[in-house]
Amino acid sequence: MTTLPKSNVKAPPPRPKGSPRTPVKAKDKEGGKKEKGPKPNEQSEEDREREGLREKAIVELIETETTYCGLLDKLCQHYVIPLRDYKLINEEQHKTLFPQLEVIKQLSETFLHG
């Protein structure tokens, strides 16, 4: 079995985990160096997909909040106000059934429109 002679060339130190690699440089037509990769204003496929998912989530949130506000309005019109105005239940029972409903309704509307 033959052994290879030892080399005087040292290997570069290992790169720490998670550290970015330096971008590969290419020479442009004028002889200067420029970085390869997407241009600053271009979006990658992953960025476009992420933006699409973000837009979809925003639309879903607005639709859900709009539905919720509408249902709170119906609750107030058909139950909260008539039960209070016609005194079908006493004030304590009303507060127990509908605690801070007006505050919740205002917060929801502010979130949606504000």
What does this structure look like?
This protein is mainly alpha-helical and 114 residues long. It has a domain at 45-113. The chain is 54% helix and 5% strand. The chain has 3 helices and 2 strands; from the N terminus they run ββααα. It has helices spanning 45-85, 91-97, 101-113, and strands spanning 25-27, 33-35. Strands 1-2 form a two-stranded antiparallel ribbon. Helix 1 (45-85) runs antiparallel to helix 3. The termini are far apart. The mean pLDDT is 80.
The SSE order reads: EEHHH
Label the structural class: mainly alpha
Give me the Rg, rounded: 33 Å
Percent of residues in helices: 40-55%
- The quaternary organization reads as single chain
Query: Total number of β-strand segments?
Result: 2
Helix count from the secondary structure assignment: 3
Instruction: Give the overall average pLDDT.
Output: 80
Straight-line distance between termini: 81 Å
Biggest sheet: strand arrangement: 1-2
Strand proportion: 5-15%
- Uncertain segments are none
Indicate the overall shape: rod-shaped
Largest sheet: 2 strands, antiparallel
What order do the helices and strands come in, and which of them pair?
Blueprint: E1 25-27, E2 33-35, H1 45-85, H2 91-97, H3 101-113
Antiparallel strand pairs: 1-2
Helix pairs in contact: 1-3
InterPro entries: DBL_dom_sf (IPR035899), DH_dom (IPR000219), RhoGEF_domain (IPR053086)
Biased composition (Basic and acidic residues): 25-39
Domain DH: 53-114
Entry summary:
The chain is mainly alpha-helical and 114 residues long.
